[in-house]
Design brief:
This protein is mostly helical. The protein has nine helices and no strands. It has helices at residues 2-25, 28-51, 57-85, 95-98, 103-130, 135-149, 162-175, 184-211, 219-245.
Length: 247
């Protein structure tokens, strides 16, 4: 599994690069990249566990989970504020706009500094575990993920499970970068689906914030947002039907 090994090493390298970058720039976009690389590591850990049940995903993911959650605590309010404004093309808010005390930034930078000091040991342990994964076992796992996704999408989209479905799609897309087990059309469809569900998730968070009165939103913008949410959900459902009826 040379490609999976290379993918794992590359993911650790890119994550470290973005963590170091955030400590200097505090750019919101860097938070997004940090979260993507951590999701890739989670997918790798799950692949290892599939091959070796003694390998505990939760235990090895804890350092990354702390980074992930603190990055989310800074990024999600920015995404929500952008949607709530109804003007996604306007100048984007900075983290400082919503974290005036810098508490969130301080907490994340401390976590980043601690992680980078211990990163070497964690990386070596995971890469060593990846090197023991057999190709047949890995391929079987990828095919299992493909089989698990379809029942929740077609013939009926299980909307209450849509975000769990997205996590499985992400895992499949990340890991399949190392093996050509997805056709181009299926990969393109899953990528579209993952991005579309992600946009629905952002709107979900905003609507929940409004419902809980944690965020004030202009009534006109809220009405438009609800309408767009229904349209987006209909579009996703339609795309799923079209794709699977052609299979």
């Amino acid at each position: 599994m040379k490609k999976l090994n290379k993918f794992t090493k590359g993911t650790f390298k890119v994550l470290a690069k973005h963590l170091e970058l955030f400590n200097f720039t505090h750019e919101p976009e860097t938070l997004h990249h940090i979260r993507i690389e951590i999701k890739k590591i989670k997918a790798i850990l799950e692949a290892i566990h599939n091959s070796n049940k003694q390998f505990k995903v939760h235990q090895h993911f804890l350092p990354f989970r702390r980074l992930f959650r603190k990055a989310a605590a800074l990024r999600e309010p920015l995404v929500t504020a952008e949607l709530a404004s109804g003007r996604p093309d306007e100048e984007k808010k900075s983290i400082a706009d919503l974290d005036a005390s810098n508490k969130g930034i301080v907490e994340l930078t401390k976590e980043i500094t601690f992680y980078l000091k211990c990163e070497g040991k964690q990386r070596k342990t995971i890469i060593a575990a990846v090197s023991k994964i057999h190709k047949k076992t890995f391929d079987k796992y990828i095919r299992k993920l493909i089989r698990q996704i379809m029942p929740d999408l077609y013939p009926k989209l299980h909307k209450n499970r849509i975000h769990k479905i997205r996590k499985k799609i992400k895992t499949l897309l990340y890991l399949s970068e190392t093996r050509k087990l997805l056709t181009k059309s299926k990969r393109a469809f899953l990528k579209y689906l993952e991005e579309s569900i992600g946009q629905l998730h952002d709107k979900d968070i905003l609507l929940a914030s409004v419902k809980n009165k944690a965020l004030g939103v202009d009534s006109k913008i809220l009405t438009e947002l609800k309408l767009q949410y229904r349209k987006d959900m209909t579009a996703v459902s339609s795309s799923i039907r079209k794709f699977y009826t052609k299979q």
